[in-house]
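Could you help me review a protein record that somebody else here produced? Here is the record exactly as it was handed to me:
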Amino acid sequence: MAICINTITFNGLEVLEVNLQVQISSGLPNFIIVGLPDKAIAESKERVRAALQSMGLSLPAKRIVINLAPADLLKEGSHFDLPIAVGLLAAMGIIPCEDLENYLILGELSLDGGVLPVNGILPVAIKANQCGKGIICPQSQGSEAVWSGIENIVAAPSLLALINHLKGVQFLKKPQTVKLEPNSFKVDMSEVKGQESAKKALEVAAAGGHNLLMVGPPGAGKSMLAARLPSILPPLSVEEALETSMIYSIAGELKDGKICFERPFRDPHHSASTPALVGGGRKATPGEISLAHNGVLFLDELPEFNRATLEALRQPLENGFVSVSRVNAHTTYPANFQLIAAMNPCRCGNFGSGMHECKRAPLCAEEYQAKISGPLLDRIDIHIEVPAVSPWELSDVKKGETSAQIRERVVRARDIQSERFLRLGEPNLKTNSQLKGKLLEEVVALDNDAKELLARFAEQYNLSARAFHRTMRLARTIADLQSELKVNKMHIAEALTYRRKVPFHR
């Protein structure tokens, strides 16, 4: 008779149940794992054997077969160590097997029998809770599983402790959630000298979740401004925190069982490959844009990124998700992020700065800015220049508004948007940047003067339909920041000042 253990495998964020069957039968001594295991699973038998030997146990000199069903589904990961060991112990009669069917089991084993952390505990715990089962996991990740709301959690520090718990000799305490510390930002917007127009643009971007591009000479403060954007954003809701934490758990970046309510801020280097940015690789793992879900993706030195990598952002920016297709995997990850980008006006950075001369102007600027395609720029709502800061501004001891003061206005504007979406029966929408179609026209009902201004500007500067609608969304956010019920001509006029097109020629 075969012993059956419940474990899992992953397809992106989707948790798929795997039925692990253990059979010990007469025959030549052998240890076989079947059911499309990867290299890490094939090596499990050595880790399991060593862990058992560390407790004075040895495998029987018989034929041992481990089957991972369904057999046509590729299984990956070292988290199969613990369910294999538990299945063998049950088949050998060392632990009772009656209650094991009520658990999803996962964990990696060390050679001395310790249970090591693995990726994906949070989504597995959520899956177990939905199925009415418990979870057996590493002790260091028990507090992570608690966030799913599941009651039956066995967090084992070692294989020996788990054996004693299942036999009733020892009781493993239920883990507790890690106490979360309040958001404490190390940087503040008041530290930025000058750049009042850029701060205002950043506030509008934060209030409506709009994408933003900053163009200016080196040292103007573009990276400094971007780094302070999280300090003026509202904290994540519990639902958003769980969504984001599931991605971090799959990627192995959720540390110490802590779920963070600060919005993610990802700033990959411009040498990042396409799979690193959008997701992929052999296991179709989430990329930077998914790790920035519900948060900010900052791309500094935008033209220095690979052209194909930047073009891969177009679909996620429009749809809020990314599909990663590989020969052995087709995975969809959420990617509802806010893009903040920065670039110099030309390769040397001096074009139009007023402080230094660009030796190859205007060709230097045209070649450098041409690296960014029109369709990608079209998806960026706010385009602003960030000029160099004068020495007088740098020496001014007077500080500007703090991040807390700006965040109050941002939160108020977002609350207005949330209430509006609930009233319209669209609870899944979070910000004005997500408005589309008929809902956009309903929310941004322009009067004749506003329509005329927008139409005249669109005709003069050849705005695309996408840019036209993004200007409407931007105007709606500006009106929300001013607590205005309707979008008027002044809001459209301010929104149009943010729709300047690159190149930024003077």
User: Anything to note?
Assistant: The mean pLDDT is 90. The radius of gyration is 28 Å. The chain is about 35% helix and 15% strand.
